[in-house]
Please model this.
Amino acid sequence: MTYEQAFEYVGSFTKSGTPVKDLIRFVILMRLLGNPQNELKIVHVAGTNGKGSVCEYISNAVKADNKSVGKFTSPYIDCIEERIQVNGKYISRPAFALLCEQVKKAIEQTGFDGFSQFEILCAIALLYFYKEQVNVAVIETGIGGLLDCTNIVNPVVSVITTVDYDHTDILGETLTDIARHKAGIIKPSIPCVVAPGQENEVMRVIDDKCREYNCEEIIPDMSRVQTLHMDITDVFFSYKGMNYHLIMSGEHQIKNALCAIEACRILNIEYSSVFTGLERSALRARMEEVSVNGATCIIDGSHNPSAMRAAEKLLSCDKRKIHAVVGMMANKDWQTALKIILPRFEDAIFVDGFMPGCVPASQLTRFAIEQGVRCTSCADLDSAISQATLKAGTKDIAMITGSLYLASAAEKIISKQIRLKPPDNRAAL
Model:
């Protein structure tokens, strides 16, 4: 199987696959593959917002501690291999093709139909981490936790980041329902780190599960946090008397970092390595700042109310005007999200067409006008970005937000505009 054939094979499955009531099809698949996950030291991360950041923080801390680390996350900005990394390097295309062929043969033996892209990629990742003999594997759930295929792992520590409304069509309409899915990753006697500041109904579910399973529940103590400096580009803070520096800024990133710090304590990672790992951590499309034709441009994939609240709070630290390019997916609570962020914009250009299932730009425009925001729509994302950066000039900010799919499309356009390639994190071929 070539890389192109492997890519086509993965793409032949739907993103979510046939709905499941249990994990039996993935259990059988991994059994046929030799259960590589049982040989790995795993950190399992679930939640609504902050999963990617927590995975990045933990992975970089492990790497800084001179240990090898695998990371499986979603979605991707650059290429599908981005989702499977060892020591910050994407899986090579030959390795991806070879392991995909193994997974394909095993799927044909299972007797099950309806596998998802996510299940296939997860299987490839677990095989890859086993073959690479990583010291630690950091595994991010896809949707939920309880019925997520990653939940077959036996972690040394579980992490639940901020839980909020998202994927309500799958996880349920209430925070209690959603929390039950997220808390599904809690395992008997396995420590569970929980992000601070959760809603009461979320904590009731998690508390009950931890008591039922007799596991240590670790909630970072916000009273022992002191923010020393924060602006749109970075933040310095102390926790339990130890100083840390993040280049992903915001109060929400402090909470994410606290989860990583506590997880690293379970992993016996030295403070100096944790400090270095946190300081080196950055994710594309998470309040990512780039320069486009001399203008400051922020690319942010915030797409739900909780993430938008975090973005708005961080942007309030900066008094520059914001000229926004916004696109959103129809399966998200885009109305609530927009109401949160729109007052921060000087003006906005709405776009669609970057992914099937977008909210029509005309509909977004009408909604924003009702909120009293100066705005227009544009059929071409490239043109919208050019207009926003031209308005921003050297004094203001151009911002692209509303969807990670939009962020991915914008990254490709901007990389061409500034004649820069995305960072090459690929493993050697």
Summary: Residues 419-423 have pLDDT under 50 and may be disordered.
